[in-house]
Model the fold of this input.
Amino acid sequence: MVFLLLLIGVAVSVVLLSSLLLRWNEVRYSRKQGLPPGTMGWPLFGETTEFLKQGPSFMKARRLRYGSLFRTHILGCPTVVCMDPELNRHMLQSESHGFVPGYPQSMIDILGRNNIAAVHGPLHRAMRGAMLGLVRPAMIQDCLLPKIDAFMRSHLQGWAGTVVDIQDKTKEMALLSALRQIAGITAGPLSNALKTELYTLVLGTISLPINLPGTSYYQGFQARKKLVSMLEQLIAERRSSDHAHDDMLDALLSGNHGTREKLSDEQIIDLIITLIYSGYETMSTTSMMAVKYLSDHPQALEELRKEHIGIRKLKSPEDAIDYKDFKSMTFTRAVIFETLRLATVVNGLLRKTTQDVEMNGYVIPKGWRIYVYTREINYDLFMYHDPITFNPWRWLEKSMEAHPHFMLFGGGGRMCPGKEVGTAEIATFLHYFVTRYRWEEEGRNAILTFPRVEAANGLHIRVHDY
Ligand code: HEM
Done:
């Protein structure tokens, strides 16, 4: 009996204490005038657990209750979530009006203080200018596509008769192809060493910033140090050699090829790390999911294969895919965009306010994070008929890429500079994949869709010669 009373006492105290803490947290924030509606959850943790557990349903439930602009506290910061496409577009275009990138501290620390997401104003313009110079159409045509083609030919060699984990293969592809484009690095001890450090670095950027030996953050930071020293060595070798290299590193060191401004070595190193990092997960996930959707939609695969066999027919086997071929791949482009849309490779973008900002009659305080949540646009019934169906043909009907709410690659002054080169790379991967092979999925491969698109235990396919 006493035990039961004690138990009830403890339960009542827990409930009371919890509601007091929740109430205190709400009162603390509601002292600020004009905040959008919403709840802030627990002190310190906010509503992070619910957000991570419920994913997109968390957002949809709050939108239903509070509208498209609401406040919450997730991932360590007071945050305003915006699910209104027009407001999102406006925010991405308003960097100079108080919205700068607001990515987590671990990412900023590990990618370096000059990484493009950490800088704004004139330094951002200089870094972005250099980046755009590296991936402009002439560079894709003359320098990058030949490297991408050579890489894909060798990367996709010898898959017939084996079971491959396409998730592993596309991750490796994104890293190794980038190394080849940046510094002409081909398979060997250097690419292996860089690959190991890059994998560790990526894990560090998505961990809590706890700098203790053994944590992913600590290891990510160590990986960064090793990468920086490898890249410094590479730069020193380039400077002491008379031999010209037709690659991104030479373009950056010389300030030629439209990279416009000459950057410092430190900035070049951070730019290279950012460049690999930015394309890594987006490129690998899109390529993996394209394979998955094509497996599940034979008609789309047939149409895609027809396009690529048509291109190959006009070439000899050793001819590389060139810029004209890439531009003619209209269905392939549609498959890539439809994959990005349906899989929602990018859920949204993070911004931070540099001053109190008024939006839709509310005030977002200085220093708050804004989650420019673009996911739901991908399933908007007005924009996409029957949005949950994989239908690449929809991209051929009207110019969806020009739609003001097309945000698969972001928007405004930070719109992805890698859009075309990334699309060309996935297109070249698909070219060799569908013209060389047919395949079927091996076993059941669970795909997680939130917070990242990921095949929990890999995506295994059995591959045969076509
Ligand atoms: C399917 C492939 C890709 C997708 C879906 C994608 C998506 C995006 C998105 C949504 C942004 C906007 C981020 C923001 O506003 O905060 C972005 C920015 C960026 N992307 Fe991509 N990306 C892809 C491939 C690439 C590739 C291959 C590269 C490198 C060659 C790259 C380099 C960058 C860089 C440097 C930025 C930052 C631009 C800036 O802040 O000015 N991306 N990307």
In short: The pocket of protoporphyrin IX containing FE is lined by residues 101, 116-117, 128, 131, 135, 274-275, 278-279, 282-283, 286, 340, 345-346, 349, 408-410, 414, 416-418, 421-422 (CB under 6 Å). DSSP finds 17 helices and twelve strands in the chain. Residues 265-296 form the longest helix (32 residues).
